Amino acid sequence: MNSKLPAHFNDKWILDKRGSKNKVDWNKPYGWDIEPERTLTGKIENTGTIFLTNKECPFHCLMCDLWKNTSDEPVPPGAIPAQIEWALERMPPVKHIKLYNSGSFFDGGAIPRKDYPKIAALLKSFETVIVESHTKFINERVLEFNEMLDAELQVAVGLETAHPKILPMLNKRMTLDDFRNGIDFLHRNKIQSRAFVLLSLPFLLPEESEEWAKKSIDFAFESGVECVIVIPLRTGNGATDFLQEQGQLTLPSLKMLEDVLDYGINLTAGRVFADLWDLENFSNCDTCFTARKGRMNEINLTQSIQERIVCTCN
Q1: DSSP code, position 55
Q2: Residue 141: its H or E element
């Protein structure tokens, strides 16, 4: 790994590395899912996620691949409520719902303000509503939407890393102070927050990446979030593939994710989840993979450390 950090990557560099987008339909979300999650009250209950079809996020982050299922133009007013309604008609009943729109829910260019009342009305039966937002859009709009909801609002914010040199290079256009201030705004207004933390960072050795994932969990909890989701960095968006080819990016191992998850759980500072999507991409052993994935899923649900899986590979 090159010890000299390269210059900051801008929009043009990242966009030039991309492939093509998937075809999307404004009339329906590009996906939905149901999975169990340990709630803030300690119960394990099914949570729905609706992946809304929306315009592309204005921030072109180095590690992001969500742009693949976005449109180039803003969706028309009424489209987002219609997508939510479409999904809810097909999903089994759940008490908790995540609305992920491949960007920021409170970005006026993504979800029109005039759609808030209709969205809130569609969500009146839920106990918890979780949306995502960049810190730039954490403002009075959050409070306006929160006032309309019967449910408890939670806002998920991408911290990614607390590394002071790597964070600017991700082209996220957010500082650590921005993150702290955004979380503080939510906290002062009694709105819960969760943070996304990346496991594996460009331009760092694996052991450095693991250490900074742990430091980032510390930073997120110290800033006031209630929950942290650890997301292994993936290739497939063009920019990360290029960096991997150049030897500037190493994908995380299963052991790294286990170590970071165990660390976060042992803090007992709040809920910590490992993102287990496409987990097989980070495994080099078919013998123990299923058991190790099952262990991490059990930790996600119980928020307690489980005995490590012993295998000849580790």
Answers
A1: B
A2: helix 140-148
pLDDT tens-place string over residues 287-304:
999 999 999 999 999 999
Output the six-digit token pair for 36. Answer: 């169990």
The alpha-helical segments, DSSP class H, found in 29-132 are: 79-88, 116-122
According to DSSP, the β-strands at 31-38 and 128-132 are unpaired
Question: Two tokens at 139?
Answer: 């403002």
Exposed (0-12), middle (13-18) or buried (19+): which is 63, by Cβ within 10 Å? buried
As a dihedral over the C-alpha atoms of residue 165, residue 130, residue 83, residue 31, rounded to 10 degrees, the angle is: 60
Over the Cα atoms of the chain, what is R_g?
A: 19
- Average pLDDT for the chain: 95
Q: pTM score > 0.70 for this model?
A: yes
Q: Which amino acid is at 44?
A: I
Nearest to 68 by CA among 236, 201, 276: 236
Q: Angle of helix 206-223 relative to helix 254-267, nearest 10 degrees?
A: 30
Closest by CA to 210, choosing from 167, 259, 169, 165, is: 259
Distances 112 to 74, 308, 312 between C-alpha atoms, Å: 9, 47, 54
Q: What share of the chain is helix, strand, coil (3-state, %, to 5)?
A: 35, 20, 45
Count Cβ atoms below 10 Å from residue 306 Cβ, excluding itself.
Answer: 14
- Whose tokens are 């295998």? That residue is 311
Q: Which residues of the chain have pLDDT under 70?
A: 1-8
pLDDT tens for each residue of 115-138 = 999 999 999 999 999 999 999 999
Q: Which tokens sit at 176?
A: 């650590």
d(CA 18, CA 37): 33
